[in-house]
Amino acid sequence: MMIAMLGMAVGTGNIWRFPRIAATNGGGSFLIPWIIFLFIWSIPLIITEFALGKAMRQGPVGAFQRLIGKKYAWMGAWVAFTATAIMFYYSVVTGWCLRFVVASVTGAIPGSKPGAFWLSYEGSLSSVLTHGSAILIATFVVFRGVKGIEKASRVLIPSLVVLLIVLAIRAVTLPGAERGLNFLFTPDWNALADVQVWLQALTQNAWDTGAGWGLIVTYAVYMRVHEDTTLNAFILGFGNNSISLLAGITVLCTIFSIQPDAASSIVGAGNNGLTFIWIPQLFKQIPAGQVFMVIFFLALLFAALTSLISMVELVTRALVDRGLNRKRAIVTVGLAGFVFGLPSALSPDFFTNQDAVWGIGLMVSGLFFSLAAIKYGLERFRNSFINPSGDILIGKGWNVMMYVVMVEAVILLVWWLSQTISDNGLWDSLNPWSSWSLGTVIVQWSIVLACLIIFNPYLVSNKSPRTTDEH
Amino acid sequence: MNTDAIITMIIITGIVWGGLVFLVVYAMRKEKDKTRE
Question: I want to staple A214 with a disulfide (CB 3.0 to 4.6 A). Which of A79, A85, A122, A129 is the partner?
Answer without folding.
Answer: A79
